[in-house]
Amino acid sequence: MSDLAAPITALKGVGEALSLKLGRLGIERVSDLLFHLPLRYQDRTRLTPIGLLRSGQEAVIEGEVTACDVVKGRRRSLLVRLRDASGPRQVILMATGSEVPLAVEVAEKLEAQGIGADVISMPCWELFEQQGQGYKDDLLPNVPPGEILRVSIEAGSTLGWERYTMANGLNIGLDRFGASGPGDALMDRFGFTAEKIVPQILEKLGN
After folding, report:
1. pLDDT tens by residue, 31-83
2. What is the Cα Rg of the chain in Å?
3. How many Cβ atoms sit within 10 Å of the Cβ of residue 141?
4. Residue 66 buriedness (CB in 10 A; 0-12 / 13-18 / 19+)
């Protein structure tokens, strides 16, 4: 792999003529390619926080990835493990979209009490099901709930999550009509805060 600070001509197939054309796009070094996709005209200078992404949205994100895998379906996608438990894994938190930062906050509070917790972003159940059994078992080990508690967090219906949290798992959601008001106030009212979720997990664990 070429040095990111090297001129664009360090890449195989990029001669003087092509480098001049790329230069007009502001691509002079190898690192500049990280922020340009001229064939798709996608602006990579505007980065979107992972927690603000919605299902189906296309965006450019920046962050630390601890584990990921390319999966093939109708389009190529990434399944990403955002965080590995720092202690012995006792809890697996599953979330998607804006609930992922909340799951990370819950994990941090659990780990502060010595309870290891993984956070898994699962934006698409169908893509997850297309993966090999070994991959799925790595993210969701086939062990009794008493050994590892699976928890789903979604500011919506819990329907369908029981497939992944299992019968004795914990599904944090809203199985009724919502309400109108400021977002933060509603999240607190309906229990979507780390302060309200952590005690439910501790009770389920018997702590």
Report:
1. 777 665 444 444 445 555 555 566 666 665 544 455 556 666 665 555 666 55
2. 21
3. 13
4. exposed
Q: Which of 85, 195, 73 is nearest to 124 (CA)?
A: 73
Cα 141 from Cα 50, distance rounded (Å): 25
Cα 50 to Cα 55, 67, 120: the distances in Å are 11, 15, 13
Which string of b and e fits 95-134 if b means at least 16 CB within 10 Å? bbbbbbbbbbbbbebbbeeebbbbbbbbbeeebbeebeee
For 128-180, write each residue's pLDDT tens digit.
888 888 888 888 888 887 789 999 999 888 889 999 998 889 999 887 666 66
- Dihedral angle sign, alpha carbons of residues 105, 157, 71, 133: positive
Sign of the CA dihedral with 128 first, then 52, 116, and 184 last: negative
| Residue intervals in the chain for CATH 3.40.50.920 | 50-205
Fold adopted by 50-205:
Rossmann fold (3.40.50)
Beta strands across the sheet bearing 170-172: 67-71, 77-83, 116-121, 89-95, 149-153, 170-172
